[in-house]
Amino acid sequence: MPKHLSLLALAAAAALSGCSLIPTYERPAAPVPETFSLASAQGESAAIAWRDYFTDPRLQQLIDLALVDNRDMRIAALNLEQARAQFQIQRSALYPNIGGVASANRGNNQVTGDLGNTFTVGLAVSAWELDFFGRISSLKEAALAQYLATDEGRKAYELTLVTSVAQGWLALLADEELLDISRRTLVTREESIKLAKLRFDAGFSSELDYRQAESLLEAARATLAQQQRQRALNENALALLLGQPVPSEVLASIKGGKLADAAPMADIPAGLPSDLLVRRPDIRAAEQQLIAANANIGAARAAFFPSISLTAQFGSVSNELSNLFNSGTWGFNVGPSLNLPIFTAGRLTAGLQSARAGREIAVAQYEKSIQTSFKEVSDALASRTTLTEQARAQMAQAEAERKRFYLSDLRYRNGVASYLDLLDAQRTLFALEQADVQVRLAQLLNQISLYKALGGGWNEASVGKQESVIR
């Protein structure tokens, strides 16, 4: 091996074997209780892919559309590409930059005073920092952690997008059921006001009964209009998530639908809070940010030590352009340089203090993400039990009110009960039927919230599809 190549190899080996001043990383203890207070059974939290959890083919179609066309999802994927490129840029600083050089100069010799030419051509390495104290390696580790944090952030948004589409889908089903209730109620009240008008005209009832019936009829019309508006708003919100209008065949399939038509979701066991550390991408992203902040301390420490840079050149030098590539004109030179910090007016100390403060901030953010996730799981578990009991009670109450309305209508038609009793039964039944739909919707949404809070799952195939779109 030529001598100049040996020197470059030795320098490369010295640079790549530099020491690291990054503090030993220790994962902070989770600042939450060891168990969920309302978990029905302890065990490992489920890691169910969304396709296995949301089994309705129509909903799966909508989620697939959102993963491809949602603009925030595209931004998240592009942010990942940008973070990958930033890491590659930082990693390249570990290696020398080799480039071709050529120059031509004309001037007088300072000794003889004769005019002459100098031609140079070859390869050069300019100011390659030898990473003896791990400054560049530390920055590379920080960039890698930032890239991994961005990747986890993309996964976190994907989970949010999947569950948001599912929530939007259930909202549309609830809207259809509420509209059906309102239309049926409107028909019932239109029949009631006809009867009230006949009885008023015949002198069997007062104008007060007729006006009360009229008031309830208009209230039903107002509620129907409000629900039609809400139905349109929910459809627009779902279209925004999809990045395109909701397919017409999907909208047609839910006409007159009910929440009971929604495919059931699996019951998810809530394991130990420690499961969240490996399940939830937002917690993993916060930990990668902590690792990056820890690596920045290593770079700040290394800045206190001397930096050694290497400049090298191998090529041909000649006074005549025609002799530039002849034998005997080839040569090399290697020139190391050392920069030792002596006085920086506190800049290096401030840099280290800033890096340490950054790590403490990252620790607090990591712990906050764990506490937030623990609260979300606990809230979902608390709601699961109470919503089940609430739904059971409201369903029984609605059934009782249907019987009451039937009896009140029968008694009124036979002149036994007052019209006020009938109107009260109508009003109460309408409110309870709406509340019944709302609480069943809340139950289903809570199942989705628990799925998301426990870390959910995503198909790697969908990730690959998204990356193929970016490429």
In terms of topology, how is this protein built?
Layout: H1 3-16, H2 50-53, H3 57-69, H4 71-92, E1 98-108, E2 115-130, H5 135-201, H6 207-242, H7 248-253, H8 275-279, H9 281-302, E3 307-318, E4 330-339, H10 347-413, H11 419-453, H12 460-470
Antiparallel strand pairs: 1-2, 2-3, 3-4
Helix pairs in contact: 3-5, 4-5, 5-6, 5-9, 5-11, 6-11, 9-10, 10-11
The overall average pLDDT, rounded, is 83
So, the CATH homologous superfamily? Outer membrane efflux proteins (OEP)
Structural class: alpha+beta
Provide the number of structural domains.
1
Rounded to an integer in angstroms, the radius of gyration calculated over CA atoms is 37 Å
Distance from N terminus to C terminus (CA atoms, Å) equals 42 Å
**CATH architecture call:** Up-down Bundle
Detail the poorly predicted runs. 1-17, 458-471
Shape: elongated
- Biggest β-sheet: strands ordered side by side in the sheet: 1-2-3-4
How many individual β-strands?
Answer: 4
Q: Which range best describes the helical content: under 10%, 10-25%, 25-40%, 40-55%, 55-70% or over 70%?
A: 55-70%
SSE order: HHHHEEHHHHHEEHHH
Main beta-sheet strand count, sense and barrel state: 4 strands, antiparallel
- Helix segment count? 12
Beta-strand content = 5-15%
For the record, what CATH class applies?
Mainly Alpha
